[in-house]
């Protein structure tokens, strides 16, 4: 009965994850592609991340029938190998899902806050993007070769070798915590520089504060990883389930956080209003217009574009 109750809880959780991510992604795609006709790479990446998360959650729900919540020793060998394959799918789908999610968010932040390329801020953002993508690529390769052959992941009697996966999970957890908190701080820093009232800054920051949930998920995953590294008596299946839920919740929070900035534009479009900043109707700034306004201060051009673009996009 306990397993049936846990099965119900897990299915309910992954159903909520799927509903929230597909719903917000659909709303974002409608707003950016159909309403505003301004779709970019970040929309395509977020769509891919959402589909990967749905696959991840589907594999997790399907593995319940194979004994995901049972002790490893109680699972028949046939089901154990099949369950190992499902866990492999969950792990390998998670890495590109979180990578695409973060890349989409970072490209979105670049578009909103750093519209002029090759400035110091732009290079800093590109460096951060590069570090994240190189890490997730190397993590994917490291995960792939962690067990050879892959069937040894769940069937320990199979000849071969496996790295200590809990230590690997701890290392990746540390990186994700640092990356997630950095993603949370970046928009707050740029919004704090806008020429807006405190109230409007709070509203703008609130759009990005869902990232706190991603930080909590990655932190929880790190805590569990450290716990399972220290306490080797914990059943492997129990640790797999908890870490998988943490990974799925991290991706879910990231997708929602990346989609929320499109909500104000969606609301304005539904109400039939143009893009506004406060009570003043504005359009997206053009670089040539700002060059005409500030011909004697070309060094201030990136800042002027940032202020105008961010005001029209965020508020």
Automatic annotation (TrEMBL):
<keyword id="KW-0812">Transmembrane</keyword>
<keyword id="KW-1133">Transmembrane helix</keyword>
<dbReference type="InterPro" id="IPR052337">
    <property type="entry name" value="SAT4-like"/>
</dbReference>
<keyword id="KW-0472">Membrane</keyword>
<feature type="transmembrane region" description="Helical">
    <location>
        <begin position="6"/>
        <end position="31"/>
    </location>
</feature>
<protein>
    <recommendedName>
        <fullName>Rhodopsin domain-containing protein</fullName>
    </recommendedName>
</protein>
<feature type="transmembrane region" description="Helical">
    <location>
        <begin position="81"/>
        <end position="101"/>
    </location>
</feature>
<feature type="transmembrane region" description="Helical">
    <location>
        <begin position="171"/>
        <end position="190"/>
    </location>
</feature>
<dbReference type="Pfam" id="PF20684">
    <property type="entry name" value="Fung_rhodopsin"/>
</dbReference>
<feature type="transmembrane region" description="Helical">
    <location>
        <begin position="122"/>
        <end position="151"/>
    </location>
</feature>
<dbReference type="GO" id="GO:0016020">
    <property type="term" value="C:membrane"/>
</dbReference>
<feature type="domain" description="Rhodopsin">
    <location>
        <begin position="27"/>
        <end position="267"/>
    </location>
</feature>
<comment type="similarity">
    <text>Belongs to the SAT4 family.</text>
</comment>
<feature type="transmembrane region" description="Helical">
    <location>
        <begin position="43"/>
        <end position="61"/>
    </location>
</feature>
<dbReference type="InterPro" id="IPR049326">
    <property type="entry name" value="Rhodopsin_dom_fungi"/>
</dbReference>
<feature type="transmembrane region" description="Helical">
    <location>
        <begin position="202"/>
        <end position="224"/>
    </location>
</feature>
